[in-house]
Specification:
By secondary structure, the protein is mainly beta. The protein contains one helix and eleven strands. It has a five-stranded antiparallel sheet, covered by helices on one side. The protein starts with 18 loop residues before the first strand and ends with a strand.
Length: 159
């Protein structure tokens, strides 16, 4: 039998999945779907009738939640497809480093410094930096899905 010292528990993880399965026919406009390995928000769904070979098909038109690129996929409505676990969290912006990393604080007072200013959309990083340099207190929204986190919105905190 192995000794407890033989195992390394220093990097434990809760083991939560980044995606879950859902029947394609249950996904609606405004929901999320994984298309070509990317988390996307569904902007349109059309369902074709059952054909000669027996399956109604769902035609998904979606937009990548991080890049804004349009994606399309066709899945039989009774088949399972992946849906990303998407979380949105708000932080107060404390500081922006020279290399573009943001110091963020959540409501519990916990800080993190591992999120970079966003590349997409163009000019958004400059907009955040300019507002911060003007002395405004900013609330930053961070979207996380499939082991990727990105700043997607900012708003001024009202005093």
């Amino acid at each position: 039998m192995g000794d407890i010292d033989d195992y390394d528990f220093s990097t434990a993880d809760a083991g939560s999945s980044t995606v879950y399965n859902m029947e394609a026919g249950q996904i609606r406009k405004g929901g999320y779907i994984v298309i070509k390995g990317k988390p996307c928000k569904v902007v349109d769904v059309s369902t074709s009738k059952t054909g000669k070979h027996g399956h109604a098909k769902c035609n998904f038109t979606a937009v990548d939640i991080f890049t804004g690129k349009k994606c399309e996929d066709i899945v039989p409505s009774t088949h399972n497809t992946h849906v990303p676990n998407v979380n949105r969290k708000e932080y107060t912006l404390i500081d922006i480093s020279d290399d573009g990393f943001c110091s963020l604080m959540d409501e519990a007072g916990e800080t993190r410094e591992d999120i970079k200013l966003p590349d997409i959309p163009d000019g958004f990083a400059r907009q955040i930096r300019d507002a911060f340099d003007d002395g405004k207190t900013l609330i930053i929204s961070v979207l996380s899905a499939m082991d990727h986190e990105q700043i997607i919105a900012m708003k001024e905190e009202s005093a």
